[in-house]
């Protein structure tokens, strides 16, 4: 009975409107039709609210997101997405077919481990004045690997014709690429997939331009 009551409680997402990793989790919740509460963690204000001792108890890496759900606290967006997929009904975020599931994980890891960390806030703050060139270099390097992979795996979406965790990772990464003035037109498959996904309601409602903590000048 206690576990059932815990599972009935709304998940709480501690995140930041423009964080790729927070956006991934918002997309997953939206695709599954899960209601959740948001607690903003401003990565810039007060020197970075993620660096407080209070937040460190939620996520020892002092990054966003942290998700309180079913009586546990999870960090690392891919782990959160897979937990949501394994515990909630709705469209699958990882395919049933083992080969397609491996492809989804490969694409997701390429983005989440090979591209995004090299241009997240903590890193580019250390880079200083060269942050734009740095970010462009590593996004282009990642997209040069991702484009031929997606040419092989994509149908309507990243892997075949069903939305998956790979798509959840792709859209925030393209958003970051555009922020850093990367010419996404060089990557026609990535560009096509991103345009298709941005028409889907779950990707619209989770967009950084319409979150509770989005600054007024960045709102849609």
Strand order of the largest sheet: 2-1-3-4
**Low-confidence blocks of residues:** none
Count of helix runs: 10
Q: Report the CATH C-level class of the largest domain.
A: Mainly Alpha
Describe, in short, the structure shown:
The chain is an alpha+beta fold and 220 residues long.
Describe what you observe in this structure.
With 220 residues, this protein is of the alpha+beta class. It has two domains: 12-91, Glutaredoxin (3-Layer(aba) Sandwich), CATH 3.40.30.10; 98-204, Glutathione S-transferase Yfyf (Class Pi), Chain A, domain 2 (Up-down Bundle). The chain is built from ten helices and four strands. A four-stranded mixed sheet has the order 2-1-3-4, with helices on one face. Helix 6 crosses helix 7. It is globular, with a radius of gyration of 17 Å. The mean pLDDT is 94.
């Amino acid at each position: 009975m206690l576990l059932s009551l815990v599972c009935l409680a709304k998940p709480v997402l501690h995140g930041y409107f423009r964080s790729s990793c927070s956006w991934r989790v918002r997309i997953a919740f939206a695709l599954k039709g899960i209601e959740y509460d948001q607690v903003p963690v401003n990565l810039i204000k007060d020197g970075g609210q993620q660096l407080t001792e209070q937040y460190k108890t939620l996520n020892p890496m002092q990054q966003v997101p942290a998700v309180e759900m079913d009586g546990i606290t999870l960090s690392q967006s891919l782990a959160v997405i897979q937990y949501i997929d394994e515990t909630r009904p709705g469209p699958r975020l990882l395919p049933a077919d083992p080969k397609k599931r491996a492809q989804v994980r490969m694409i997701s890891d390429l983005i989440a481990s090979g591209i995004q960390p090299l241009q997240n806030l903590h890193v580019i703050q250390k880079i200083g004045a060269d942050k734009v060139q740095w970010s462009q270099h590593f996004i282009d390097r990642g997209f040069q690997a991702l484009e031929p992979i997606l040419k092989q795996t994509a149908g309507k979406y990243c892997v075949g014709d069903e939305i998956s965790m790979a798509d959840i990772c792709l859209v925030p990464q393209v958003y970051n690429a555009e922020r850093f003035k990367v010419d996404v037109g060089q990557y026609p498959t990535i560009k096509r997939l991103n345009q298709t996904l941005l028409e889907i309601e779950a990707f619209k409602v989770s967009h950084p331009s319409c979150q509770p903590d989005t600054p007024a000048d960045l709102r849609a």
